[in-house]
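Next up, a specimen:

>
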Amino acid sequence: MRYAGLVERIAGKSATAWSVHYQALARAAAGENVIVLSVGQETSETSPALVVEAGIDSLRRGRHHYTDVQGELALREVIAERHSRTAGQPVGANRVSIFAGAQNALYAVAQCVVEGGDEVIAVEPYYTTYPATFTAGGASLVAVTTSAADGFQLDFDKIAAAATERTRAIVINSPNNPTGAVYARPTLIRLVEFCALRDIWLISDEVYATMVAPELMVSPGGLPGGDKVCITVSSVSKSHRMTGWRIGWVIAPETLTEHLYNLAMCMCYGQPMFTQDAAVVALREADALAGEIRAKLQKRAALLVPELRNLPGVGVFSAGGGMFMVLDISALRVDAAQFAQGFLDQHDVSLLPCHGFGEHSAHLLRISLCEPSGRLSAACDRLRTYIAARGWESVEVIEKKGVRFI
């Protein structure tokens, strides 16, 4: 039988990047004591009790029928109020669209703003689903690299140089997954001005926004000129321990919101009422949880840095945002996917190789900070043993541009 060209565009490294992670999950499900550090989810935690009760109560009240395709008004209102307050961009509920998580929201946006022949600029390392998400409709992805030597910060001049007359969108992710880098206000101001001048959409993936101190987070939608060109995507997944509830959203200009409505009508026909009711309670009554999660992650990062910094041939990067740290193993002269597979097979720990995060990221490994400190320390001990046993400790470590040792 014949398949559409789409199946080729959604395959590749973006899809295979999770191989080690899924192997680890299968082994853990079989009862093996595997330390899973390959996903951004607090596996030992659950959604807040009041959120769970809100969802149960909603079901018992019969809130399980068809719903508003754009999203329940109460949820859109609380999201609009929250975004207006935190981003400094006044928006109403009419500019909010609810989707099944931020990933679904990003895909919906891509379908409405880019098509065959268009180009989308993405900052590398980028989240592993970006290539499939933004090329599914036929657009091309153009990667602009960043460097650990520069804190993985945006380089505006590189982005401007990469833009062509075919560029229709630039997608950024701050705090960044996997690096945790938080993009600086001056650079974002220039980027917004550039997008406004060139009539280019600026898509801001802000799923990890609450994982950094509020005074450090800059949402481009709230910058001068951002209201017309910025599309903001976020969710309650990381901020409220609600990954499985699948509640994400898009904040966009009204015309795009209308197009997103039409797409949602033929794609998912609205999200469940009871999950949206639970999200309303989360955003109204459990918003302080994000600060607690952030403090816990930062404490774990501070624990890991001294344990990892003396690993022979390994560079360590921790930017303080998001849920991860990044290891640079280029000095070990081994592919990160091979390294991660061997580490899982021999020491029962899963790290995520970053070959799916961009062509120039194959030497990086992402470590999740979402496990308890004791398990993180145990993973570090096993990592030290793994490297020593393979003889990589004898590799000459070269201080190279692009690796930041801390």
In short: The two ends are 54 Å apart (CA to CA). The chain has two domains: 6-46+289-394, 65-285. Residues 289-308 form the longest helix (20 residues).
